[in-house]
Amino acid sequence: MIPTWAQIGYLVAAVCFIVALKALSSPRSARTGNLIGAAGAVLAVIITFAAYKPDHLVPILIALAIGTVGGVIGSRRVQMTQMPQLVALFNGVGGGAAALVALLELGDVPSEATVAAIATAFTILVGAISFSGSVVTFAKLQELMTTRPVTFPGLPVLFVASLLGGIALAVWLVSDPRVWVGVLLCLIGLAIGVMLVLPVGGADVPIVISLLNAFTGLTVAAGGYVLGNTLLLVAGTLVGAAGTLLTKLMADAMGRSVFNILFGAVRGGSTLGAGTASDRPVISGGPEDVAILLGYANKVIIVPGYGLAVAQAQHTLRDLVEELQSRGVKVDYAIHPVAGRMPGHMNVLLAEAQVPYEQLREMDDINGDFKTTDVVLVVGANDVVNPAARNTPSAPIYGMPILNADEAQRVIFLKRSMRPGFAGIENELLYDPRTTLLFGDARDSLTKLLTALKTV
Amino acid sequence: MTESIALLTIFVLAAFVGVEVISKVSSTLHTPLMSGANAIHGVILVGAIIVTGAADSAIVVIVGLLAVVLATVNMVGGFVVTDRMLEMFKGPGARKKELHK
């Protein structure tokens, strides 16, 4: 039995976690909130040592030290563009840890406690799915493997069969909690995780991260039930709610259902594109032409995309915007919800370049402003301004909410080549007579623009 | 049975609190939200310590220690990287101050 003071300590830790999430409602309070959350976690660990008086103290402390060093090094070294991979990886190890804990608890689950046995089976299965799914997600984002959807004939059959097998094993485990059944369940979970993520295309992987995050959260909550630990229960449930909500938000921003994103490639109706360059005529200009357009505008909106981050051009873009502002041009950034590789990723990338967050405006907030805007500068983005999402029912991105860049007087695209975007669909806006293209690497182009702007 | 009902109650209430709190998170901060939530589920570390501490066979200790390492990476790494991101979110005032330095 856990002593009362420890229960109260766990309650304090749970409140710390809620405060940490609540503080994220504003960038001003968010950092303090995160520190409170971390303090809650440290408190929880100290209470656990004091209340449970675990054996094998020295090996546990060594394991803690190893994990701490690994976590700190990983999170210090990572570049902001690689954030989605890191979140996927951390999520995976959390899910893996939960599955292992449940596996070890298996021997201690009393045979008459059916609910606890169900929770244990759930934790093992979903924790394993979360682990292997996250590892595949990491490999895709890190480009250790192809980012295209991977399918093979028989995958749907195998997937459904594994799922049914997993459920059957889970039922078996509930009626007869044997460790080897648990290990088998764990293995089938790993296989399901891999098959779940393989057919998902690179552009849709962020949704999977969010979904797996929710899975791990629920796994931890179920683990908390098994151990009778309220802190794990509350913390896991909070994370489960966060992941579910974010998954839904992202799917809405892409105008597709979660089911379609996960299984679209399997059914053939996915965002698979041709990916070939087009040879239709476009208007391209030099840096000087574009600089004149920008320098003499009253109002400019910047649409940044992941291409900006790949070229590491956020800082150059900020310098360009500051130069424009010093000339009296009103400049805003329009942030599409799926700009970057995960929800809110573009905000982090621009914050790294010290762009004040007040200048970053969300899609719903800024979409009415394009009509009165002189120039829209699209840097490394494509699909998020593709009018096909509105006008072409046959396009794979049809129905996805987009930024109304086509309503502005002039549009400038900084593009590397004429290759279509992630979704692989032609963007009519590129061929519009009001559109000017400036070809080249985003950072080079922005540097040339900045130089040209100072002379016009 | 009363204990499982109590736990179920906590679960349901926590779910409502979670949805309520998270729907108010500014979309600017969705990436830190994801990594922060990620760090919070690293608290499975508590569970890993409990099962390892109660272990009586070598194999259970080894698997338990593996779980401790994984959970610690999740928790520590999650909070550190979230802090790194949030540190960068500054208003216009902060940026000016830095330029004047």
TrEMBL record, chain A:
**A Pfam family this protein belongs to?**
PNTB
Q: What is its EC number?
A: 7.1.1.1
Q: Which domain of life is it from?
A: Bacteria
Q: Which SUPFAM superfamilies match?
A: DHS-like NAD/FAD-binding domain
Fetch the InterPro entries from UniProt: DHS-like_NAD/FAD-binding_dom, NADH_DH_b, PNTB-like
One GO MF term on file is: NADP binding
List where in the cell it is found. Cell inner membrane
Annotated membrane topology is: Multi-pass membrane protein
Annotated keywords: Cell inner membrane, Cell membrane, Membrane, NAD, NADP, Translocase, Transmembrane, Transmembrane helix
Main localization is membrane
Task: Determine if Cell inner membrane is one of this entry's keywords.
Answer: yes
Its GO CC terms are: plasma membrane
Residues crossing the lipid bilayer are 6-25, 32-51, 57-74, 86-104, 116-138, 150-173, 179-198, 231-251
- Domain NADP transhydrogenase beta-like, first and last residues per copy: 7-451
Q: Catalyzes what?
A: NAD(+) + NADPH + H(+)(in) = NADH + NADP(+) + H(+)(out)
PANTHER family for this protein:
NAD(P) TRANSHYDROGENASE SUBUNIT BETA
Q: Which family does it belong to?
A: Belongs to the PNT beta subunit family.
What this protein is reported to do is described as: The transhydrogenation between NADH and NADP is coupled to respiration and ATP hydrolysis and functions as a proton pump across the membrane.
Q: What is the protein name given in its UniProt record?
A: NAD(P) transhydrogenase subunit beta
Species of origin reads Kribbella sindirgiensis
TrEMBL record, chain B:
Membrane topology is: Multi-pass membrane protein
Q: Name one GO biological process term.
A: NADPH regeneration
Which Pfam families does the record match to this protein?
A: PNTB_4TM
Where primarily located?
Answer: membrane
Q: Where is the signal peptide?
A: none
Q: Which reaction does it catalyse?
A: NAD(+) + NADPH + H(+)(in) = NADH + NADP(+) + H(+)(out)
Q: What is this protein called?
A: proton-translocating NAD(P)(+) transhydrogenase
